[in-house]
Design goal:
The chain is of the alpha+beta class. It has helices at about 40-50, 60-65, 110-125, 140-150, 180-190, and strands spanning about 25, 30-35, 70-80, 80-90, 95-100, 130-135, 150-155, 170-175, 195-200. About 30% of the residues lie in helices and about 30% in strands. Strands 7-8-6-5-4-3-2-1-9 form a nine-stranded mixed beta sheet. Strand 1 (about 25) and strand 2 (about 30-35) form a beta hairpin. It binds coenzyme A.
Length: about 200
C-alpha cells in the first residue's frame, strides 16, 4: 500500500480522451466488482481500519473519489455488503495500485484476485501499460497475490512505512496489455472456482 499522498482535488470529469472503462463484473457466486461510490465509504474505511496498521481515513478516500481523471477505485460486494476494494492512480501510461484490502472475514475467497483482474482490465482500457505498487516486505500474502499476476520486484524503499519503519518492496508489471500478461490473467480467471456472469458496462 502506498503511504498517504495528499494531492489537490481535480474537478470531476471524463477520463482523458473521453475513455470509459467497464467497471462492473458480476460473478457466479453473487460477488459484484463495481466502481466505488461515496455510499460505500463507511464500509471501505472499516475494512481499511481492520487491514492496515496505518489506515487511510474516510476523508482521504473521499478526496480520491473527487479525482476521477487520475483515480479508479473498485469495490467488491456480496449482495449489499462491501467485502473489498482496490485503488488505481494513473498518469498517462503508468499506473500505481495505491491501496487494496479485503475484509478479514472474507479472505481466501478470491476477492482480491477478482479486484485485481478488474483493475488490470480497466487499466488497459485507460491506456496504462505498466503498473507499479509498494508492498511491505513482510506481507507475504499480498506479495504472493501480485507475483501470481506477474508483478516482479523492482527495488526497495528503505523505511517507507511510518508506523514501524518497515521497508517497502516496489513491484512492477510491464506491458499489461501484452499477450503474455493477458494470457496470464485469462489463466488466473479460468482457474477460479467461480465464473463471470456479466460485465454490464460503465
Ligand atoms: C492481501 C489480500 C488483499 C489478499 O486478499 P484475498 O481476497 O484473501 O486474496 P485471494 O483469495 O484472491 O488470494 C489470491 C492469492 O494471494 C495469495 N494469498 C492470499 N492470502 C494469502 C495468505 N494468507 N498466505 C499466502 N498467500 C496468500 C495466494 O497466492 C492466493 O492465491 P491462491 O488462492 O491460488 O493460493 C488480503 O489478505 C488483505 O486484505 N490483506 C490486508 C491488506 C493488504 O495487505 N493489502 C495489500 C497492500 S499492498
Amino acid at each position: 500500500m502506498a503511504e498517504v499522498v495528499v494531492s489537490a482535488a481535480e474537478p470531476a470529469g471524463r477520463v482523458p480522451g473521453g475513455a470509459s472503462v467497464p467497471g462492473h463484473t458480476e460473478w457466479s457466486d453473487g460477488v459484484l466488482v463495481a466502481p466505488m461510490k461515496r455510499r460505500h465509504l463507511r464500509a471501505v474505511a472499516s475494512i481499511e481500519a481492520a487491514s492496515n496498521g496505518h489506515p487511510w481515513s474516510r476523508s482521504l478516500f473521499e478526496g480520491e473519489l473527487r479525482m476521477p481523471t487520475s483515480r479508479h477505485w473498485l469495490i467488491a460486494r456480496d449482495h449489499r455488503e462491501v467485502v473489498g476494494f482496490a485503488g488505481l492512480m494513473w498518469t498517462l501510461d503508468e499506473g500505481h495500485i495505491t491501496n487494496f484490502a479485503v475484509h478479514p472475514a472474507r479472505r481466501r475467497e478470491h476477492i482480491a484476485t477478482r479486484l485485481l483482474l478488474a483493475q488490470c482490465r480497466d487499466a488497459v482500457d485507460l491506456g496504462v501499460t505498466s503498473l507499479t505498487l509498494e508492498v511491505r516486505v513482510s506481507n507475504s500474502a499480498a506479495r504472493s497475490l501480485y507475483s501470481g499476476f506477474g508483478f516482479a520486484p523492482g527495488g526497495i524503499r528503505r523505511g517507507y512505512y511510518n508506523d514501524n519503519g518497515e521497508d517497502a518492496l516496489i513491484m512492477w508489471l510491464h506491458d499489461i496489455g501484452g499477450e503474455e500478461s493477458s494470457q496470464r490473467r485469462t489463466r488466473i480467471e479460468a482457474a477460479l472456482p467461480v465464473g463471470v456472469v456479466a460485465t454490464p458496462g460503465p
